[in-house]
TrEMBL record:
This is ABC transporter permease. Keywords: Cell membrane, Membrane, Transmembrane, Transmembrane helix. The chain crosses the membrane at residues 24-41, 53-71, 130-148, 168-187, 216-235, 297-315. CDD domains: TM_PBP1_transp_AraH_like. InterPro entries: ABC_transp_permease. It comes from Streptomyces synnematoformans. The keyword RNA-binding does not apply. The keyword Transmembrane applies. Pfam families: BPD_transp_2. It is found in: Cell membrane. The lineage of its organism: Bacteria, Bacillati, Actinomycetota, Actinomycetes, Kitasatosporales. It is a multi-pass membrane protein.
Amino acid sequence: MADLTLRRALPADRERVLRWLQEYGVYLGVALLLLVNIAFTPNFLSAENFRTQAVQVAPVVIVALGMALAIGSEGVDLSVGSVMALSTSLLALYMGYGPWVALIVAVVGGAAVGLVNGSLIAFIGVQPIVATLALMVGARGLALVLLPQLEDIRDPGMATLGSGEFAGVPYVVLIAAALAVVVGFVVRRTTFGRQLLAIGDSRPAARLAGLPVRRVLIVVYVASGVLAAVAGFLATARLSASDPTSLGNLMELSAITAVVVGGTPLTGGRVRIGGTVAGAVLIQLLTATLIKHDLEPSWTQIAQAVVIILAVYAARERGKR
């Protein structure tokens, strides 16, 4: 009897551990990396280092917010990196009209890519991975047609946005934080957020319930495109240059990693905005740690792969029960 009770207790304990890891594992990972760096990385606690890490992770956070919406709807957006490249090309072309006009044009460009993505998925029934893969290639190509080479951005407003700060916090970080709050509110407190999660949980059931499935999907991908365009704008401001060749390269993978590690399941039906932000911070800290200790960049990719596998395994094991 005692052995039977023990055998029944072990799976239950394993389930609790896996559930805890999925809910809070990303925060534990961030805490452990902070402790490791505090102990072994010189000058890690300096204000300049924290500022650098925050500025570098801000565009990833913004792109990951849109990716979280797409994954929450049981989709994915592989075009976000190319949208960043398109955004920086449009900025360079329209900066002569002023930074606000250039920003509006860049955002409209991102929204247009998202509209095409959403329309292919919602009206034609193309799989999200296929539709966004097509736009991933097409938007990058268009960006390079518009701006074949790097171009310096010499605008005081852009320079201020890229390097300025308020109360010691960089503008780009404040913008990323504000967008995270807005997206979190939309997901948790609005009808649209509840509809998105219902569609991600079961699209056929959502249709039978009379939910506006097509409209929600289009809004999701337009929002993802807009957020990617904003990230491209901020990255351009920080670099003071438009470079569609390299800007946004592999950003879609970083965003997916942040979302998955943050606890949002690839099967949809759930979006964890706080976890997504923490996931982006985790990947940034991991990358910075390896770089500061003179390890090759390839080790960063290997480490990210291990983190993704662990996160997906935890989600899969939990889903079995």
